Amino acid sequence: RYARLLQILALKPDAMAPMSLGHAMVHAKISENRVQKLLGARGSGLAEQLRLVARRLASAGALPYRQIGELLLAPDDSERAERLRLTIARDYWVALDRALPPESETLLGTP
């Protein structure tokens, strides 16, 4: 697990940021489907999903090393891992909601 974390952090060291993984995924325009796959993955599937997401995040210039490390190193079915998944999901949906234009503007056809 530590080796996988180091591989992820080595993708783009200057992009490491102490920000929320959820916010970073919205900033990098990662799809809801990909976020759901990441949050639902366990074991080697989690490591693979994190690797895919981290590559996109590094390209976008924001690699939230703290939450990536916590998620990768926490035991899969631990309470800590579940709390972290819920936090990441909440941060993602809040940031996504803020990034979308208000419904009234969308319905009226104004930018």
Structure overview:
- This protein is an all-alpha fold and 111 residues long.
- Helices cover 70% and strands 0% of the residues.
- The chain has helices at residues 2-9, 21-27, 32-40, 43-60, 65-73, 79-99, 103-108.
- The longest helix is centred in the last third of the chain and has 21 residues, at 79-99.
Question: How is this fold's topology laid out?
Answer:
Blueprint: H1 2-9, H2 21-27, H3 32-40, H4 43-60, H5 65-73, H6 79-99, H7 103-108
Structural class based on helices, strands and sheet pairing: mainly alpha
Shape: globular
Most strands sheet: none
Number of strands: 0
Q: What is the number of helical segments per DSSP (H or I, 4+ residues)?
A: 7
Average residue pLDDT: 89
Question: Can you tell me the residue ranges where pLDDT is under 50 for at least 5 consecutive residues?
Answer: none
Task: Summarize the entry for a quick read.
The chain has 111 residues and is mostly helical. The protein is 70% helix and 0% strand.
Structural features:
mainly alpha; 70% helix; 111 residues
